[in-house]
Amino acid sequence: MKKEWRDQSIDELNANVRDLEREIFLLRNELAAQRKLEKPHMIRAKRKDKARILTILTQKQKAAV
What we know:
Blueprint: H1 2-7, H2 10-34, H3 41-64
Helix pairs in contact: 2-3
């Protein structure tokens, strides 16, 4: 996945971040409502993916300047 993200444009990466934020939001809501998740590790995995994408975004933005 990391290689795929490096090949994407800044707009595509921003869209991926928005998608991940929405998925994290939905997982947290499910956790709050049911006090249980089928796959609790997914919240942490999605947060890490978001951080990785934001790092790549920062690198691309600094390189574009």
